[in-house]
Amino acid sequence: MVQRLLPAADGSLMAESEKRAAIETLGRLCNESRAVYEVWLQARSIGRLPSYDDLHLKSVLALIPNIVVVDVLQESADYRYRQVGWREIEARKADPTGKTVREWYSGEILSFVLENYDMAAQGGEPFVDFSIDITASQRYIETETLFLPLSNDGKTVTQVMVYSHYLEQPSSPAR
Predict the structure, then answer these.
(1) What is the DSSP annotation of 76-98?
(2) What is the pLDDT of residues 15-71, one digit of tens each?
(3) What pTM was estimated for this model as a whole?
(4) DSSP type of residue 172
(5) Exposed/middle/buried for 22, CB within 10 Å: 0-12, 13-18, 19+?
């Protein structure tokens, strides 16, 4: 387990992160995160990481809006957003598709995000970040984020698929 605090510019706590191996947290995962993890597990062969094409996402079609896929850019220690679901775009209030993580983020949040992608890319094992984050749109609260390493050759992590579980904040009544 890895824990980390992310302070906001004003010194307040922006996020508290608790990262755990996915297999250790099955009982704690929401049903949706568990379903995405099961799709990854079914595609994984003994000793081989699955590729994106190996995943049978039909069983989790309703969750695709919450999925991001990034390409691992080995030469630059960065990640490029390949696929970003519409809920992810709505939560961010913009579409990062085609941009790198280093182009999209800066400051402390950049190192926070890179740390997660690095753990998935270098460790080659799925894990969950139980950060509680209010999104840029203020509409969603992110309660857990599942990181799933993917590979084109079964060994080297070439992509990371991310499923973020959101709770929609109740809208305040009009006054």
Answers:
(1) GTEEEEEEE-HHHHHHHTS--TT
(2) 445 555 556 666 778 899 999 999 999 999 877 999 999 999 999 999 999 999 999
(3) 0.83
(4) P
(5) buried
Q: 86-93: long-range contacts (C-beta < 8 A, 24 or more apart)? A: 87/140, 87/166, 88/164, 90/137, 90/139, 90/140, 91/135, 91/136, 91/137, 91/139, 91/140, 91/142, 91/164, 91/166, 92/135, 92/136, 92/137, 93/136, 93/137
Do the bridges between strand 13-21 and strand 133-134 make them parallel or antiparallel, or are there none, so unpaired?
unpaired
Compute CA 32 distance to the chain's CA centroid, rounded to the nearest angstrom: 13
Buried b (16+ CB within 10 A) or exposed e, 148-168: bbbbeeeeebbbbbbbbbbee
DSSP 45: B
